[in-house]
Design a protein that fits this description.
The chain is built from 13 helices and 23 strands. The protein is of the alpha+beta class. The strands form 7 sheets. The protein has a 7-stranded mixed β-sheet, sandwiched between helices. Strands 20-19-21-22-23 form a 5-stranded mixed β-sheet, sandwiched between helices. A 3-stranded antiparallel β-sheet has the order 5-4-6. A hairpin with a 4-residue loop joins β14 and β15. The chain is globular and about 75 Å long. The model has no long low-confidence stretch (mean pLDDT about 95). It binds adenosine-5'-triphosphate.
């Protein structure tokens, strides 16, 4: 993890928020390559759900919502983690994440230095960030930063249904920021206080929910595998009865084996009609669906797929990182699948003379119109290749002394380091073909 965090900073994937002021706890900024990588992941998600299917619509609901939404959803009363403090060493942690009833800092054997655990009783700590709407900082003007994007979908489900002419079963997908005042954030961008969710809520007829739940599990696992993640590092974790959230009838997490262990990257939940019935009750508005074919009215059940864009990106980065020794030198490679790599191709003139930079720039500008490309003419070619390996660029295109006369270039493959000779006017097609 230390190597990954340092590469992320050095090469412009992720920076600490407000670093010049010493950073802000577990809040991160995405640099030029990080924003490109995360966008590629989000675009793939959106494409697979919204663009490639007829039965899912997109939505972008506001972060701020009516405060009664969070009363209805159960978040005001129940979105809390049990927090425990150690009076001896001042550590604070989640009681439900402890393996035994001892302070995680472990008492020291040195006399006078925290030799005993002195734990407080667990207290429920609500994870929602509060702020005020309008000029008065009073109870009546409290609003929350949403802790999940799902509620924006539930309260809009009839709007989407009526305006899109969808029929049940159908889904609504949304990508957006969510905020949780986590007690123990950490592991870089794994658990943060501000993060992005990619959530899809699928509305189905009660009685068909188990079947849809199974279908969505299959689709979602395949999506993660399609990102190029190592299949051996992906697994399912089924929530046992005691672990299930208040709204869930069944829940499975997709877990990835991070350097710090197996952890959730996405949850697939059968939320029943819990949310819609609560919003119906609290708003006083009928949220039932009328099914013309059967003349029935019912509240749909919801199968939810909820992934964190930041967590998935961390999984993609951890999975891609590798070190190799080549000719007694360390080669660090981010082996991203080409479709998620932030930069697809680098154009490198071998020498800064004989018209090579001009030819290289012409190719670079031509490629850039179609795909994220990079131009680099500084330093030894071997070092330039290493720089591209480290940011995961799948192909380096080298313009050399034969390019002008033969109208051809070499294309170096990041993983095998093998080189192909390709006609200059075929480079774009060659790349596009491999990017699908
Ligand atoms: P955890 O048990 O790890 O706190 P959760 O079960 O509360 O997670 P969900 O409420 O199911 O998580 O949220 C769905 C997804 O949102 C998670 O699978 C994760 O990818 C992402 N997510 C949740 N909390 C955070 C966070 N604090 N930072 C980054 N991503 C998060």
């Amino acid at each position: 993890m230390d190597k990954l965090v340092s590469l992320a900073k050095r090469r412009g994937f992720v920076f600490q928020s407000s670093e010049v002021y010493g950073g802000l706890g577990s809040v991160w900024d995405y640099g030029p390559l990080g924003v490109a990588l995360k966008r590629n992941i989000k675009d793939r998600w959106w494409h697979s759900l919204v663009q490639a299917r007829d039965d899912i619509e997109g939505l972008d609901a506001a972060i701020l919502m009516h405060p009664r939404v969070w009363e209805a959803s159960g978040h005001v009363a129940g979105f809390a983690d049990p927090m425990v403090d150690c009076r001896a060493c001042k550590a604070r942690f989640r009681a439900d994440k402890l393996t035994d009833a001892r302070c995680p800092q472990k008492p020291s054997k040195v006399p006078g230095e925290h030799t005993t655990c002195d734990l407080t009783a667990p207290r429920q700590f609500n994870l929602m960030f509060k702020t005020f709407m309008g000029p008065m900082e009073e109870t009546a003007s409290v609003v929350y930063l949403r802790p999940e994007t799902a509620q924006g979908i539930y309260v809009n489900y009839l709007n989407v249904l009526n305006s899109s002419r969808q029929k049940i079963p159908f889904g609504i997908a949304q990508i957006g920021k969510a905020f949780r005042n986590e007690i123990t954030p950490g592991n870089f961008i794994f658990r943060t206080r501000e993060f992005e969710q990619m959530e899809m809520q699928f509305f189905v007829k009660p009685g068909t929910d188990d079947e849809w739940f199974e279908q969505w599990r299959v689709i979602r696992m395949a999506w993660h595998q399609g990102l190029g993640l190592d299949r051996a590092r992906l697994r399912w974790h089924q929530h046992a009865a005691g672990e299930l959230a208040h709204y869930a009838k069944a829940a499975y997490d997709i877990e990835y084996e991070f350097p710090f262990g197996w952890q959730e990257i996405e949850g697939v939940h059968n939320r029943t009609d819990f949310d819609l019935s609560r919003h119906q009750e609290h708003s006083g508005k009928k949220l039932e669906y009328f099914e013309p074919a059967s003349n029935e009215r019912y509240l749909p059940y919801v199968v939810e797929t909820s992934a964190g864009a930041d967590r998935v990106m961390l999984a993609v980065m951890a999975d891609a990182y590798r070190e190799e020794t080549v000719a007694d030198e360390l080669r660090v490679v981010m082996g991203f699948a080409p479709h998620v790599a932030p930069i697809k191709a680098a154009v490198l003139p071998l020498m800064k003379k004989d018209g090579q930079p001009e030819l290289a720039l012409e190719l670079y500008h031509d490629l850039r119109a179609k795909l994220p490309a990079f131009y680099d003419d500084g330093g030894a070619i071997g070092r330039r290749y290493r720089r591209q390996d480290e940011i995961g660029t799948p192909w380096c295109i080298t313009i050399d002394h034969d390019t002008a006369s033969q109208r051809s270039v070499t294309i170096r493959h990041r993983d095998s380091m093998a080189q192909d000779r390709v006609g200059l006017d075929q480079v774009k097609g060659w790349l596009m073909e491999r990017l699908g």
